[in-house]
């Protein structure tokens, strides 16, 4: 399957390492639709919407008492940040995604066949219930807030196989925390030392000064769920991927790693969106890819429009399809503009 071509940074448009350049405002009717989201009860609470096109800000608005310096929860958008950190290690030859994952606890049992690629693609076969309804059986709640909260990777590593590796797709936050454990042990960095690595290797070169990653008591980055950032910094991260791994006109992440992130993984027919490697596919139409988080946190990259769209807020779980429909409508309006 051919991937959608990624757009280049337009000539004469400065990279947003220091500050975002500003472009022409969106058409009034589209601006009105975006403004209306801040009062639409079906969407819950909208805290921020930012639209970057051609590398320039074309729309930016925040909720009451919030602004461009406000940090927002990533929830599962952190998974895509984890994927970038893994990509840097792969580029240095420190990790091989197609080799069996280096998890000492699995040596000698059937889980030893699981590869890092299968973990990144949510196809490991490990048992993990991803349910956010309080009171139900939920491994993600138990991992983040219950018995597993002090060692999130350990909790996920202990799960048994439910399916043969690479035979079944199932979205599981636990697998991302296993990936974080593998990456940190490979680099020999835990806690504050790994946070310093995140800043030096990924955030600071992009001009991302706001990120606050969260770690568990074992010193593992909770890469499934926790990296607080401003909307502008989430947009910087999205632009890195939309530009095929280039930053300041120089290779930062290999183009092949960006393509790896957006290469489809086989998913069940019941799954509305496609999935790549720690990135979702298709929310903004064919070729689009996105970092998605609980309650409607989105960093959406749309190659054919050269758009990065960031949305933060608190949309009730039962209305998530209403929000997805709103996003699709906005994207269609952008295509018509």
Outline of the structure:
The chain has ten helices and twelve strands. It has helices at 28-36, 78-91, 116-120, 139-145, 152-157, 173-187, 191-206, 231-242, 255-261, 320-336; strands at residues 45-53, 56-62, 71-72, 212-213, 227-230, 246-247, 250-251, 274-275, 280-281, 289-293, 297-302, 307-314.
Can you describe this structure?
This protein is an alpha+beta fold. The chain has a single domain, classed as 3-Layer(aba) Sandwich (Beta-lactamase), CATH 3.40.710.10. It is 32% helix and 15% strand. The protein has 10 helices and 12 strands. It has a 7-stranded antiparallel β-sheet, sandwiched between helices. Helix 2 runs parallel beside helix 6. It is globular, with a radius of gyration of 19 Å.
Task: Output the keywords.
337 residues, alpha+beta, seven-stranded antiparallel sheet, Beta-lactamase, three-stranded antiparallel sheet, globular
Quickly give the CATH architecture. 3-Layer(aba) Sandwich
> Spans of 5+ residues with little confidence (pLDDT < 50)?
none
Strand order of the largest sheet: 2-1-12-11-10-9-8
Determine the strand fraction and express it as a percent band.
Answer: 15-25%
Structural category is: alpha+beta
- The tally of beta strands, per DSSP, is 12
Number of discrete domains? 1
**Portion of residues within helices:** 25-40%
H and E string: HEEEHHHHHHEEHEEHEEEEEH
Q: Using only CA atoms, what is the Rg?
A: 19 Å
CATH topology-level fold name: Beta-lactamase
CA(first)-CA(last) distance: 29 Å
Q: CATH class, anyone? A: Alpha Beta
For the record, what is the CATH homologous superfamily label? DD-peptidase/beta-lactamase superfamily
């Amino acid at each position: 399957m051919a991937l959608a071509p990624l757009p280049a940074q337009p000539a004469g448009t400065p990279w947003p390492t220091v500050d975002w350049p500003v472009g022409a405002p969106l058409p009034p009717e589209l601006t009105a639709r975006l403004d209306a989201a801040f009062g639409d009860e079906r969407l819950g609470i909208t805290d921020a919407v930012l639209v970057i096109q051609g590398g320039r800000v074309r729309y930016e608005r925040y909720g009451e008492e919030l602004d461009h310096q406000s940090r927002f929860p990533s929830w599962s958008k952190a998974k895509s940040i984890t994927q970038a950190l893994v990509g840097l290690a792969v580029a240095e030859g420190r990790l091989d995604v197609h080799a069996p994952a280096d998890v000492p606890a699995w040596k000698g049992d059937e889980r030893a066949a699981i590869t890092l690629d299968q973990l990144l693609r949510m196809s490991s076969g490990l048992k993990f219930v991803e349910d956010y309804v309080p009171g139900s059986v939920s491994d993600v709640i138990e991992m983040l807030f219950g018995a597993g909260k002090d060692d999130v990777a350990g909790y996920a590593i202990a799960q048994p196989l439910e399916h043969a590796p690479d035979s079944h797709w199932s979205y599981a936050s636990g697998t991302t925390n296993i990936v974080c454990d593998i990456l940190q042990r490979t680099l020999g960095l835990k806690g504050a030392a790994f946070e310093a690595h995140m800043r030096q290797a990924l955030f600071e070169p992009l001009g991302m000064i706001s990120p606050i990653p969260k770690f568990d008591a074992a010193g593992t980055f909770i890469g499934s769920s926790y990296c607080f950032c401003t909307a502008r910094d989430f947009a910087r991260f999205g632009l890195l991927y939309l530009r095929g791994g280039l930053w300041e006109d120089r290779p930062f992440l290999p183009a092949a790693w960006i393509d790896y992130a957006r290469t489809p993984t086989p998913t069940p027919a019941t799954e509305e969106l496609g999935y790549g490697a720690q990135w979702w596919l298709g929310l903004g139409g064919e070729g689009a890819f996105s970092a998605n988080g609980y309650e409607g946190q989105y960093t959406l990259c749309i190659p054919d429009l050269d758009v990065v769209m960031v949305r933060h807020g608190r949309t009730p779980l039962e209305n998530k399809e209403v929000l997805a429909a709103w996003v699709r409508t906005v994207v269609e309006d952008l295509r018509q503009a």
